[in-house]
Amino acid sequence: MFGLFKSKINEIMTPVNGMVVDLKEVNDPVFSGKMMGEGFAVKPSDGKICAPVKGRIKSIFPTLHALTMETEDGLDVLIHIGLDTVELNGGGFSSIIQEGQKVKAGDPLVQVDLAFLAKNDKDDIVIVVLPEMKDKKLAINLGTRQVGEIAATLE
């Protein structure tokens, strides 16, 4: 996982290895229309979902398909794993974290079985959005979309 967003206060890492995708390309109007906020997505090459920031686990959906984190300076970060994966009722997901737990960027959060998602016809895209960035600009450079060659800044 590599740094994707940088500001004076925050650096947000990609939560999973894979190919970075512009949020507009996500096959869900809520995310592609940025109704949940600005962000990015990653088409994962493995199922190890890690903390993109240092902070605290704010909430974990019972189905483990989504969670929110809060950075040390109060920025909320939503991680949503797959599309329509809530319908799996937690199948294919395992977690080792708890609400309120403090984590560092790169700490494992959730393990997802990508083959299980494929078998159940679920898109495995991992979406990261910043709800507070809904009305603010976020500069993202997706020149080379392979994780590790990307930089962006919060404005």
TrEMBL record:
Its main location: cytoplasm. The keyword Phosphoprotein does not apply. It is found in: Cytoplasm. Residues 28-132 form the PTS EIIA type-1 domain. Keywords: Kinase, Phosphotransferase system, Sugar transport, Transferase, Transport. InterPro entries: Dup_hybrid_motif, PTS_EIIA_1_perm, PTS_EIIA_component. Pfam families: PTS_EIIA_1. PANTHER family: PTS SYSTEM GLUCOSE-SPECIFIC EIIA COMPONENT (PTHR45008:SF1). This is PTS glucose transporter subunit IIA. It comes from Candidatus Enterococcus murrayae. The lineage of its organism: Bacteria, Bacillati, Bacillota, Bacilli, Lactobacillales.
